[in-house]
């Protein structure tokens, strides 16, 4: 099952950036215990797709500073996706906020990768 706001990779369809923005913006509105797991699942799915897209773009990035930022964001995304917060509400809130921040950064890098090599040979 594909998370809301993303297109299955096989279709080659563009991602639904508005839906992804809606997901990470909903973190600002807070979550309930019931909605936390659903929101976490959705945003992790969106991050997974964005990580694939950004990872494919990084080798083509011409600006070394942007490339370093992308690599950092990808590392942080892998760390966050691979962890589950502690049992307390504070840990859960920090974790979902961090996921939303990484999701936003990945979407920004996907939409604005900077100058790219045309042949991808960099």
Q: In summary, what is this structure?
A:
The chain has 122 residues and is an all-alpha fold.
Number of helices: 4
Rg from C-alpha positions? 15 Å
**Main sheet characteristics:** none
Q: Please write the string of helix (H) and strand (E) elements.
A: HHHH
Estimate what percentage of residues fall within beta strands: under 5%
The amount of helix comes to 55-70%
Query: Quick check: average pLDDT?
Result: 83
Please mark out the parts with pLDDT under 50 across 5 or more consecutive residues, or reply none.
Answer: 1-11
Could you characterize what this model shows?
The protein is an all-alpha fold. It is 62% helix and 0% strand. The chain has helices spanning 17-26, 33-57, 64-81, 89-111.
Topology:
Elements: H1 17-26, H2 33-57, H3 64-81, H4 89-111
Task: Describe the structure using short key phrases.
4 helices; disordered N terminus; 62% helix; 122 residues; mainly alpha
